[in-house]
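Give me the fold.
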Amino acid sequence: MTEVPSEQSTPAGRALVVVDVQPTFCEGGALAVAGGDAVAAAIARYAATHRGRYALVVTTQDWHVDPGEHFSETPDYVDTWPPHAVVGTPEAELHPALADLRADVGVKKGEYAAAYSGFEGVAPDGRALAAVLADAGVTDVDVVGIAESHCVRATALDALALGLRTRVLTDLTVPVTPEQGAAAREAMAAAGAVLVDSTRA
């Protein structure tokens, strides 16, 4: 898909939303996505270089205690999955590459039910992601993370549904498969997301 050039907006109203960059979704994890470790490192470099562009940096995490039918011993990899991002395990924590990210807020989702979008999660103070962004005066979001075909897609679509101007930085995310990535980009673009390489953002 052809990438759309980035749009200008004021840094005061822009947030970076880092979706589910956790060891569980990277090489060696329970739901490993090829290229996950590289994306984690690239996000860390981008955030360190461009922190001044953002009024707010938010991370989201899958954070499963007992998500019911979301976990299965015989997963279909559509609605059911092997156990992953289990609270209390290193796989559920943020990827070590993000140790110096300096996020303002961390949102966790999916304790007792399936959750794909970051907007299904809550901050430590109980606010949903939508409220976190609204309280900070955010009007624009840049979405990055893992996996493009699943939680990045869901988060971007929910951001658009809330009226937020939304960009997906395509080099700072990776899909489960190329085919699923292409479908996700098509869906996000059709909904109004701007797809752009971080070097052009």
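Helices lie at 36-50, 129-135, 148-161, 178-191.
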